[in-house]
Amino acid sequence: MAYAIAAYLHFMAISLLFALLLLEHHLFRQPLTLERARSLFRIDIVFGISAAVVLASGIARATFYGKGLDYYLNNSLFHAKVGLFVAVAILSIYPTLTFLRWRPALTESQAPRVSSSTARWVTAAIRLELMLLLLIPLLAVFMARGFGVTAG
């Protein structure tokens, strides 16, 4: 039962992560309004929390349930999945820092000013995050079919 709950939390958190990124992509357009800026600021906080739940539930699944930690540590696709997750986390730093810089303007009920260069980089980062997140379930499917296991 605990494995099923951990798996469910993991899948739901991944789905939420993707949905929040899609929402960020939809809301982040110029000119930026105060309402959309506030939403982006809050959504990004929930995105960070969801990423932490994905990580915690994934660690629980790999460590305590399922096929055991040795299986995952000896699976090249698992390493690729973790690498993609880390890449998404690193890519998310730029949009997060951008949104955090808006705090003073949002506190004063003003829409933050975003340069066209910053807007392009934030949009590119979000799009790349979405693309990489789409690859992680594909690797999970291959893992479930027994691919990626190395002799060890």
Can you walk me through this structure?
79% of the residues lie in helices and 0% in strands. It is mainly alpha-helical. It has one domain (2-144). The mean pLDDT is 93.
Radius of gyration: 18 Å
How would a crystallographer describe the biggest sheet? none
| Helix/strand/pairing category | mainly alpha
Number of strands: 0
What gap, in angstroms, lies between the N and C termini? Answer: 30 Å
Mean pLDDT: 93
- Taking pLDDT < 50 over at least 5 consecutive residues as the criterion, the unreliable ranges are none
What spatial form do the alpha-carbon principal axes imply? elongated
Beta-strand fraction estimate = under 5%
Count of DSSP H/I helices: 7
- Fraction in helix: over 70%
Tally of structural domains? 1
Order of helices and strands: HHHHHHH
Brief characterization of the structure:
The protein has 152 residues and is mostly helical. It contains seven helices and no strands.
Question: What would the keywords be for this entry?
Answer:
mainly alpha, 7 helices, elongated
Secondary structure layout plus pairing:
Blueprint: H1 2-27, H2 34-64, H3 69-73, H4 76-91, H5 93-100, H6 103-107, H7 116-144
Helix pairs in contact: 1-2, 1-7, 2-5, 4-7
